[in-house]
Amino acid sequence: MDTFRDGKNAIVTGAASGIGFALAVGLIERGARVWVADIDSAGVERAAASLGAGAHPVTLDVRDAVAFRDLVAGVARDAGGIDFLFNNAGILHSGEVCEFDEEQCNRIIDVNIRGVVNGTLAAYPLMVRQRSGHIVNTASLAGLAPAPLLSTYAMTKHAVVGFSSSLRFEAERYGVRVSAICPAGVDTPLLDEEAISGAGRAGWRPDVRNYLTLAAGPLCTAQKIAREALRGVERNRPLIIIPARARLTALAYRFVPGLVGAFGRQVIATVIGKGRGKES
Questions:
Q1: How many H helices and E strands in the chain?
Q2: If you placed Cys at 44, which of 22, 38, 134, 153 could pair as Cys (CB 3.0 to 4.6 Å)?
Q3: Could you give the dihedral angle defined by the CA atoms of residues 122, 127, 133 and 134, in that order, rounded to the nearest 10 degrees?
């Protein structure tokens, strides 16, 4: 029903760079028309220009529920419907929670959770009326297993997994599909927290790229994640866990959590020890 072919209409948030841009590339290569949305106006214009005639740039703050509804309604009106919504926009905060403040926590909740909810509430009723459509939410391996030093990020991604997995059962009776993408570490601008999250904050932060490599192996490219994610969407997988080693980690945490915990403590001790040592 929802296989990619010419004439399909898709909205991708967080599409100016990283996984969102790579998803847009893959969708356009498959013949879809893509509304590439991002809060970064200049970035999304550049992205759309590089993607060609099948891409339509949209400036969107996913925290704005009214703007999200307007986008979905406009695409449905002009294109005749919406086949795919990729709720991909997200931000990341790293470090120890004892050094976070309410503003940081609220912002990551607003973008990573409410952004997904806003998109779903805008598109899902329309898909129910269509009796077709596929909502794809970008979660993370951190939504399936602990991710210390990324605790607020992990909180939001657990929420996305729970929301997606539960909604999937409600939606199937209407012919609507729901999936969650759960990648391990990905080398994207998301890891450059200053660019994604706004002004810097006081307090120690780990080298996120190094930390993720120690914890989960070499970082994947956004292109690899997008290729495997779109194959998973085509196969209507509920959880698209990428790459294979991430699936092993998720299984290990499910069946032998103590082993994963012991390894995680070693990684955290190494990362914090090196990082705090540089401060002194």
A1: 11, 7
A2: 38
A3: 40
Can you tell me the distance from the alpha carbon of 50 to that of 148, in angstroms, rounded to the nearest whole number? Answer: 37
Closest CA to 22 of 211, 190, 249, 241: 190
Q: Kindly state whether residue 147 falls inside one of the protein's structural domains.
A: yes
- Sort residue 53 into left (φ over 0), alpha (ψ -120 to 50) or beta: alpha
Contact status, residue 188 vs residue 14, Cβ threshold 8 Å: no
Q: Which positions are annotated as active-site residues? A: 153
Phi-psi region of 95 (alpha: psi -120 to 50; beta: other; left: phi over 0): left
| Residue 54 pLDDT class (50, 70, 90 cuts) | very high
Number of domains in the chain: 1
Q: Which pLDDT belongs to residue 86?
A: 98
Question: If you ran DSSP here, which 8-state letter would residue 12 be given?
Answer: E
Query: What is the maximum alpha-carbon separation in the chain?
Result: 61
| Chain centroid to CA 216 | 18
CATH number at residue 178: 3.40.50.720
Higher pLDDT, 206 or 176: 176
Residue 70's alpha-carbon distances to 74, 113, 129, 229, in angstroms, are: 6, 19, 17, 27
